Amino acid sequence: MGLIKEGKLVNDPFKNVSDCETVPAKGPVIVSIDQWMVRRDDLLKRSDLIGIWLKSDEHPETIAGDLAYLSLVALEFPSFRDGRAYSYARLLRDKYVFSGEIRAVGDVLLDQLHFMARSGFDAFEVESEDPLDAYNIAAADYSVWYQQTGDGRLSAAELRGKGIRR
Amino acid sequence: MYRYDEFDHKLVQERVQQFRHQVKRRLSGELTEDQFKPLRLMNGLYLQLHAYMLRVNVPYGAMTSRQMRKFAHVARTYDRGFGHFTTRQNIQYNWVKLEETPNLLAELAEVEVTGIQSSGNCVRNITSDHYAGRIKDELADPRVYCELLRQYTVLHPEFSFLPRKFKIAVTGSPKDRAAVALHDIGLRMHLNDSGKLGFEVLVGGGQGRTPVIAKTIREWLSPEHLMAYVEAILRVYNLNGRRDNIHKARIKIIVNQLGIDRYRELVDQEFDRIKGDVKGIPEAEIQRIKAYFAPPEYEELPDFTDKLSTLRLADKAFDLWMSSNVAEHKIRGYAIVNLTLKAPDRVPGDITATAMDAVADLADEYSLGEMRVNHRQNLVFVDVKQMDLHNLWQKLGPLELATPNLGQLTDMITCPGLDYCNLANARSIPVAQDINKHFVDVDRLIAIGDFTVNISGCMNACGHHHVGNVGILGVDKHGTEFFQLTLGGSSDEGASLGDRLGRALPQEEVPAAIEAIVDTYMDIREDDERFLDTYRRIGMVPFKEAVYGSADTKVVV
Ligand code: SF4
Predict the structure, then answer these.
(1) Nearest beta carbon to residue B238 from set A84, A109, A166
(2) Which of A111, A166, B178, B426 is most buried, judging by how many CB atoms fall within 10 Å of its CB?
(3) Whose CA is nearest to atom 6 of ligand 1?
(4) What is the ipTM of this complex?
(5) Domain B413-548: which topology?
(6) CA dihedral defined by B287, B289, B292, B294, rounded to 10 degrees?
(7) What confidence tens digit (pLDDT) does each residue in B363-391 have?
(8) Is A166 part of a structural domain of the chain?
(9) What is the pTM of this model?
């Protein structure tokens, strides 16, 4: 398992705090939405970064008003077949204008890396003996996209419009 | 016809390369079958009863002779010398080998054809009217919007793992030849009150075990908002569609659960939010795509109808073919010719590699190198000179492509059924062949007129039985194959689902039952009323009596 961000294998500064654990005094944490609701004030008193973990049936709308306090939203793929997180990521970026980290967690199948990246994910928890190698192979799969999805990369139609040829 | 540019080519090549790598990982055991399954499905590769089956998209049903030749080559090289055209403007190969599919797909990519999203829980091949661009009653060529939608949906980052498969059909003509009301999204062009062209948007139609006629979600949508509106529909579906039960995961279920008004509300909210930043299709791009579908340079030809009349008088077989298989073209001196893949003794939709090559040659000679496949599993030459019709007909005959039965009882839609499909309850192909043997009298078939018979081997309804004038559904009764008949279905404008006739019949009784239905119809029809209209006027009772005898008609179904 490894965390990939901006194409690099990085140490995860965040600690996942499960609902039955106590929040450590220091250091960035990721908590569930339930914990956020319950311990919101305590968490805000700490001076460290906060992330929230959303399950695939938890719509980011519920935390839309709190996004200013959050540095990270982890979106869970319970199975690679469950595609809701792609829409959540897009809503977080386009509708709620969230600029923090959106992390793909759970059943993160690298064959879907491009879909995730283009939907707005920018960090990936990769299950592999050599996460960086696996990531690099997947990242090289595509260089052309038809859709404009707000991840900043130009679609084929836009490139055509600019007269850029491949 | 749309042609790939460097971007399209690059994307498809990258896709093949990615799949090659995935196949390698599967063969080496690095990927489990469970992980590999969605990846192969998104490239059109199914595991069937006896072998892998590859489904290849013919985008909105339009193809060139070059593509047809490649289909023939693939049939010969990677399959057993034939292919099968389906009801979704796809061609299927039933005997491919996993390790050979990357090469196969690379060969198809050379001619701008792919298996991308021909299966899986994503947006499938966009389908359309097979007469698009060539028919008088059309408001605008739907293929322009189909191609825009194709590009918009191919490898869509957000909508490649929807709750379930998703089908979109477009018609530019008030006469619906694309069955748009039976799709997850149906788009029907029409003019609004101020005479501006736009789309009526239908949502939540579909067949399968819960057949539903689509409902209108928007009366009129301006074309420049098409992508934004489709995106809104897809996003609402992706977030709200059921994922707990595969049989309840299609958009039709959630539309019914929420109600069309609530669904519309959700879509409109999303649409209003996103329509401002028009989803990625610059006007220049629309114009670029439109240019590909500009009409070919037609010759100034005289109307040839009179001379054809003489030929028709002289040859009854030619006359029959003219009246059943040839349609009017919007340009004087030209005609549209349907090539029926429905000769009596063959499998509907099947075509050999040799015939494919011959069709490609004929398309070059007689149809400006272009052809179509339609949702009734037939091929179409869209630009034939009237003066060539007789010659063409003579050449189609020996290829068994001139059976004059378009739209008639023997022009059946048939799914592959138990002969190939691992979900089937029953064999659909032999039933079609039995019916064919009973209806050999050409004059009688003509007298019967428009009459669709659609056969599915199980309730998944790939053979569109719900919308056949007569639908035939294979069911399993204690290990024996039985067939359930329905009457009154139609997929055209004013679409309707068939009603159950009565108890299911054993295979050998099916042809006689159809005979009885036809005889009853011929007795009670008024003037040249179509079967569908007679049924709608009179209802089930006389047909039920004819098939089961009067004692059975009291049984409530
Ligand atoms: S209708 Fe059933 S038997 Fe026929 S092809 Fe579809 S799944 Fe197979």
Answers:
(1) A84
(2) B178
(3) B462
(4) 0.96
(5) Sulfite Reductase Hemoprotein; domain 1 (3.30.413)
(6) -50
(7) 999 999 999 999 999 999 999 999 999 99
(8) no
(9) 0.95
